[in-house]
Amino acid sequence: MASITLDNVGKVYPGGTRAIGDVNIQIADGEFIVLVGPSGCGKSTLLRMVAGLETITDGEIRIGDKVVNKVEPADRDIAMVFQNYALYPHMSVRQNLAYGLKNRRTPKAEIDRRVNDAAEILQIGQFLDRKPRALSGGQRQRVAMGRAIVREPAAFLFDEPLSNLDAKLRVTMRLEIKELQKRLGTTSLYVTHDQLEAMTLADRLVVLNAGRIEQIGTPLEVYRKPASTFVAGFIGSPAMNLIDARAVPYLPGTAHAGTVGIRPEDLTVAADGPIEMQVQAVEELGAQRLVHGHTAGEAITITMPPTAPLSDTLRLTAAQDKLHLFDRQSGARIE
Amino acid sequence: MKRTIFSNQLLPWLLLAPQLAITFIFFLWPAGQAIWQSFLREDAFGIKTSFVGLANFRALVDSPEYMNSLQVTAVFAVSVTLLSMGVSLLMAVSVDRMLRSSRIYTTLLVWPYAVAPAVAGILWWFIFNPTIGVLPYALDLIGYDWNHIQNPNQAMGLVVIASAWKQISYNFLFFVAGLQAIPASLREAAAIDGAGPIRRFFDITFPLLSPTTFFLLVVNIVYAMFDTFGVIDATTEGGPAQATNIMVYKVYFDGFVGQNIGSSAAQSVVLMLLVIALTVVQFRWVEKKVEY
């Protein structure tokens, strides 16, 4: 158990390309932090820097009180779950779980105890003597988790561990990971590009874009008060409508803002609504209906109950406290 | 598997004919002749040929020279295989760790494979030549006397080095491909699991490379036993005192130089059986992939 601190961390590749810049994160002991962002935003690189698989060119990473910039991965007291699980194919599940402990010269009885404990927690006891290739995707995922658990490390690092699973299994495993982390109370750093996964798992989210942090906050903070147009568009599904303020001059606060953000569920149909929407396409999701269209040349999407009446033109309204205002140049939130 | 149905019975045979003809003319026919000749004995003047049954084989078993050749072949094949595979694995692992310039390095390392065995033999013959060679001169400076023309162990050393050198490129390519097929995340996981570079190699990389290693093992033994004729002929010609007279070379020497066709044919039949045995091993295990 330990806290993790990233202090002005950056990485510049030998060619001069900057992958990561000015990253500051304080992760409390036992906290579940999710790094989320589009592909290529540097989230995996950042995780690998914490793991010690990538060099750090600027700043400092501390695990507990120890600066680990130059420490080998093995000596950082972390365990990592890889996207492709990285199970050793020539070893049985038991050997896979025990390998890290054996390398650390843990006594045999202790190894057996920890392996059996982990197997019980993850319900993989009956697979212990099988090879990884005889297991299904979900079972392999559990073994990969088990390999992290048996080590009893200071922190878990997860690199998109669910992205190789099918949609249904992903939801189940997501819940299991969350429960497991709460139960073990191990500090965790989790990388994903899936904003839903990020929202559901995180104690706090770190939204990354182009190697820099856009926002850090609890899922609801980030959802309710996105710090920039990037975060506003990235977190939430369907995505927030981002409208040029000049297209909707009648909305309050638009005079000094560049962009107005309104979540689709915050736009409601009202006969006297100020926004006139031309409907272009409708998607039926069962529980709700997505309506796509535009107003004054700006694309907007709203959600409606599936039974509500539809017409080619809808008049919409939005509560004033549901409007998000962003600066035209920087895209930063204006309070 | 896709099964093609020919309406005409003749067409499939016509399509197969060229390959069947080559197989028959260049493989089955000479092999059949060798088997037939291994049962015959020619008199000293080549006038009369008589059927002697298994006498040629019996003579081989009783011949201390043939037993010596078997032993020489075993030592030679094992040494060439170990040396060429060991060196190429080392090189492949080094290249695998390189990020840039590995491609140039790989290309350069492949060149020796394009050199014909006889040319490779002559190359090493020059380098090691006791009178004019560079290496004996250098060894002489540090007080080591190199003369493979007289020293049997040095002669063996020379043919082993020359033969192994040629095979390193081939092994290297397979090892590099094998190494690149191992996901980097496995080694990273092992690194996080507390295994150092050497430990990672023996616990993770080497076991996962075993299908490649086993394939190369068979290929290299076959190469050392059957394809090194050119190297031997260009360097030591089996000498000194039979020290490098491997089985393939002895077949040639006894048959074409010694004109003992019956014994030479019997020896090639023995070699044929060895090739068959190695092929069976190859198909039984390599085709099924060594399990890990």
TrEMBL record, chain A:
Q: Which organism is it from?
A: Paracoccus homiensis
Q: Which Gene Ontology BP terms does the record give?
A: carbohydrate transport; glycerol-3-phosphate transmembrane transport; glycerophosphodiester transmembrane transport
Q: Which family does it belong to?
A: Belongs to the ABC transporter superfamily.
Give the record's GO CC terms.
ATP-binding cassette (ABC) transporter complex, substrate-binding subunit-containing
Q: Which PROSITE patterns match?
A: ABC_TRANSPORTER_1, ABC_TRANSPORTER_2
Q: Which UniProt keywords apply?
A: ATP-binding, Cell inner membrane, Cell membrane, Membrane, Nucleotide-binding, Sugar transport, Translocase, Transport
Q: Which InterPro entries match?
A: AAA+_ATPase, ABC_transporter-like_ATP-bd, ABC_transporter-like_CS, ABC_transpr_MalK-like, ABC_transpr_MalK/UgpC-like, Mo/tungstate-bd_C_term_dom, NA-bd_OB-fold, P-loop_NTPase
The GO terms this record gives for MF are:
ABC-type transporter activity; ATP binding; ATP hydrolysis activity
**Residue span(s) of domain ABC transporter:** 4-235
Protein name as it appears in the record: Carbohydrate ABC transporter ATP-binding protein, CUT1 family
Automatic annotation (TrEMBL), chain B:
Checking SUPFAM superfamilies in the record gives: MetI-like (SSF161098)
Q: Which GO terms describe its cellular component?
A: plasma membrane
Question: Where in this chain does the record put each ABC transmembrane type-1 domain?
Answer: 70-282
Topology term for the membrane: Multi-pass membrane protein
- Residue spans crossing the bilayer: 12-31, 70-92, 104-127, 206-226, 265-286
Question: What's one Pfam family here?
Answer: BPD_transp_1
Q: Where is this protein chiefly located?
A: membrane
Q: Which CDD domains match?
A: TM_PBP2 (cd06261)
Q: Where in the cell is it found?
A: Cell inner membrane; Cell membrane
Per the record, the GO terms for biological process are: transmembrane transport
**Its quaternary structure?**
The complex is composed of two ATP-binding proteins (UgpC), two transmembrane proteins (UgpA and UgpE) and a solute-binding protein (UgpB).
NCBIfam families with a match to the protein in the record: PRK10561.1
Q: What does this protein do?
A: Part of the ABC transporter complex UgpBAEC involved in sn-glycerol-3-phosphate (G3P) import. Probably responsible for the translocation of the substrate across the membrane.
Q: Which family does it belong to?
A: Belongs to the binding-protein-dependent transport system permease family.
The name this protein goes by in its record: sn-glycerol-3-phosphate transport system permease protein UgpA
- Organism, by scientific name, is Paracoccus homiensis
